[in-house]
């Protein structure tokens, strides 16, 4: 009987750093982004820190794109050639990208073109962006190192994705306005009134759950939402970008309120930055069942 050999794969919107992915044995697919007319790849052609500066200087607003079917098929073939029997591939949320559908179609094409292949491809819809699924992939890599089976890992990833929520507050509306997520008039009015949108993304559906007046009220409101929404004693992650101090303050406040620290401080990348800008703070939690 063929010995099982398992590989994990995801994409760079997970915001798992290149070094971390390599250390954990995660196969990473790097999403394309166009900046000032140049097609680049995050982590390969620039770091997150460099992107925070690039987006601020850009005359043309950056745009992201999905992975091509060919790139995904090529990855399947490479992993099969390396002797793996199982590939667990967690993608960016299907509600925000065609990558999952491309992955599904290329799995069918791979099986058709390689009927004798030993490789079984298990697809998991990440249902969101950044650490919302990136954290789960990192934890899955640790489970794999401890000897977890394919069903155990897939069950964990699907359960996490089903419950995870992404919350953040952009500290300036300049980038939100440029991305087209809100009208220029609404952004201008918000800035005049000193309002910050408290945003939530679940299953790739975004909403503004509150409008917070005054920066001093942001962390207290975030703590209240975490306490209300989080599954008791479950892990959480703090999101940060160009400004780390507020993220550290949020982490300290959450540690005090919940009685345990965040799993980490996660630098979000181009996908979130193109919509929220490099000056935002947020968190990822595993939400209670039935949370609206």
Can you describe this structure?
The chain has 292 residues and is α/β, with parallel strands linked by helices. The protein has helices at residues 18-24, 48-57, 69-81, 99-113, 131-145, 150-163, 174-179, 184-193, 218-229, 244-258, 270-276; strands at 6-11, 26-29, 32-35, 38-41, 63-64, 86-91, 120-125, 164-170, 195-202, 205-213, 236-240, 265-267, 280-286. It has a 6-stranded mixed sheet, sandwiched between helices. The radius of gyration is 19 Å and the shape is globular. Mean pLDDT is 91; it is low at 183-189.
Features:
alpha/beta, 4-stranded parallel β-sheet, 292 residues, 24% strand, single chain
Cα distance, first to last residue? 47 Å
Determine the strand fraction and express it as a percent band: 15-25%
* Helical content class: 40-55%
Structural class: alpha/beta
Overall morphology: globular
Using the CA coordinates, give the radius of gyration. 19 Å
Question: Helix count?
Answer: 11
Strand count: 13
The spatial strand order of the largest sheet comes to 10-9-8-13-11-12
Low-confidence stretches: 183-189
Instruction: Give helix and strand order, one letter per element, not per position.
Output: EHEEEHEHEHEHHEHHEEHEHEHE
Mean pLDDT: 91
Major beta sheet summary? 6 strands, mixed
SSE layout and pairing:
Blueprint: E1 6-11, H1 18-24, E2 26-29, E3 32-35, E4 38-41, H2 48-57, E5 63-64, H3 69-81, E6 86-91, H4 99-113, E7 120-125, H5 131-145, H6 150-163, E8 164-170, H7 174-179, H8 184-193, E9 195-202, E10 205-213, H9 218-229, E11 236-240, H10 244-258, E12 265-267, H11 270-276, E13 280-286
Parallel strand pairs: 1-2, 1-6, 6-7, 11-12
Antiparallel strand pairs: 3-4, 3-5, 8-9, 8-13, 9-10, 11-13
